[in-house]
Prior knowledge:
alpha/beta, Rossmann fold, 3 domains, five-stranded parallel sheet, 16 helices, phosphoprotein, EC 2.7.7.65, CheY-like_superfamily
Amino acid sequence: xxxxxxxxxxxxxxxxxxxxxxELDCDVDIxxxxxxAITLLDVNQYFVVVADLNLPDAPNGEIVRLVLxxxxxxxxxLTGNLDSQQRKELLKLGIADYVLKENxxxxxxxxxLISRLKRNQxxxxxxxxxxxxxxxxxxVLLEQHLFKVIEANDGAQALTVLKDQPDIQLLxxxxxxxxxxxxxxxxxxxxxxxxxxxxxIGLSNDNDESLSARFIKNGANDFLQxxxxxxxxxxxxxxxxxxxxxxxxxxxxxxxxYLTQAFTRRYFFKKHQNEQQDNNVFSVALIDIDFFKKVNDxxxxxxxxxVLIEFAKRLEMAFGQHFTVARFGGEEFVVAFKGLDxxxxxxxxxxFRQQCxxxxxxxxxxxxxxxxxxxxxxxxxETIDSVLHxxxxxxYLAKGAGRNRVVSTC
Length: 410
């Protein structure tokens, strides 16, 4: 990622360059005037241009029009002052945002905004509105901030889109729509998507003062009254997504092991405690790294941690997309194979065991060969604790038989 700062103040450009390079780990170029900026823009592809509104050779914001219209690059405006008319003109041009050069926080805001724009490229937003004009207006605003935008002309179509594309992170929905209105849409969406997975912003041009409260009580994260100004829209969207990121981060901290990033024992039991009631085919593989204590005793805990991290990565790569991979503690891991019986689970785990035994782990002291033992059991008419207890018995047999093997009921 490459950023261009167009700023005639040496002090401002140096502060910005330092903050951007430090926080975002990207390349930053500086142009003190329009002529230098054009030279750089002609030879480089920039993710964002941060441009001063008043330059020595372009005192009337010419750089902004050039960046947006000729180079089709996202632009953040820096300015010492801005009147109401200038603000309206800049927003009409389609800038990402403007920042007044007031203090250090202003420059930190620029860095935060660039970081958000980078993440936005991977964020899908669904806009549900029966008004084509309103829908297109919202789409344009979202695309200024580099979101991937999908449209739905009513709540029913929105539900279909969400079913087909469950990775959508933000739903922006109007209230008055045919077939399925905004309230019903939110209620039905919340049956499938939690606040950790999907954020919702409601829109309406209705004058009912209770609408905002009703939207939020029904499961929306925020509400905007139409007509709204560009800045309020962007601020609400960005704050909503920042909150979503924070919720997800807290969830990850609570449910992921701090070292290996595998799920925790607590998460495993919470997720699978009702498998017997659900009457699912369900197997577990209880895994223990062979002679792991010897690794710690010989090479130290830092190397032991490297082995644990790499082993967890291998488990996640092999099974994490479809099954639950958790660390039970120390060198012990478990994989929950929902939908598979012991025979199929045994086959998968034995193949994985052979792959691990044939591939060394690179550590700070050199390559280390690692094997593991595994016990596999399938749920019967019992609790999750009972099936794990049986898997543990098979794991004990695997160790007693010489380790580096999988033992199961099959």
